[in-house]
Amino acid sequence: MSESRSSARDIDVRRETISSTAANHLIRALNVELSRRYPEDGTEKHFRLGAEELSPGRGAFLIAYAGATPIACGAVRLLDEDTAEIKRMYVAPGARGRGLGRRLLGALEAEGRRLGVTRPVLETGPRQPESIALYSSAGFSRIGAFGEYEESSSSLFMGKDV
């Protein structure tokens, strides 16, 4: 799929199922990129995310489109009544550098607020400096390990209170 050079203002962000064709395309691209950044055998790179975790009232999966082309995605899922995890954020390489990651992160945080969340958290990795910079500039800071990632040596944890 080709990537549009549209600005973030020309992008349509909408909720979709994680099983959609567009979601599968973007998640495969994310997994390829993570495998390149973390090639070591035994390094957990592709943590699970089930459709039931993204059902109405429990979470959401968002896809950003430039016209008909899916160019970014992300998810938010409830961990408990106050906390939601932001997951599977990805912006296609040709769509980077135009504020789309920030816009998508804002949309995911808004979905979390609709779920009643006061603490968004996330897991990223030390070889993703662009992601760390985005999350830091959006008010996230380092927190302790949580969830399925606690034993992952290639994980970095961030969160914030809203």
SSE layout and pairings?
Blueprint: E1 12-16, H1 21-37, E2 59-66, E3 69-78, E4 83-91, H2 100-114, E5 119-124, H3 129-137, E6 141-142, E7 156-159
Parallel strand pairs: 4-5
Antiparallel strand pairs: 1-2, 2-3, 3-4, 5-7, 6-7
Task: Describe the 3D structure.
The chain has a domain at 8-116: Gcn5-related N-acetyltransferase (GNAT) (Aminopeptidase). The protein has 162 residues and is an alpha+beta fold. A seven-stranded mixed beta sheet has the order 1-2-3-4-5-7-6, with helices on both faces. The radius of gyration is 15 Å and the shape is globular. It contains three helices and seven strands; from the N terminus they run E-H-E-E-E-H-E-H-E-E. Strand 4, helix 2 and strand 5 (119-124) form a beta-alpha-beta unit. The protein has helices at residues 21-37, 100-114, 129-137; strands at 12-16, 59-66, 69-78, 83-91, 119-124, 141-142, 156-159.
Average pLDDT rating: 91
CATH class of the domain at 8-116, please? Answer: Alpha Beta
| CATH structural fold name of the domain at 8-116 | Aminopeptidase
* Strand element count: 7
N-to-C span? 36 Å
Task: Sketch the major β-sheet.
Answer: 7 strands, mixed
Number of helices: 3
**Assembly form of the protein:** single chain
Spatially, the strands of the biggest sheet line up as: 1-2-3-4-5-7-6
Share of residues in strands: 25-35%
What is this entry, summarized?
The chain has 162 residues and is α+β, with helices and mostly antiparallel strands. 25% of the residues lie in helices and 27% in strands.
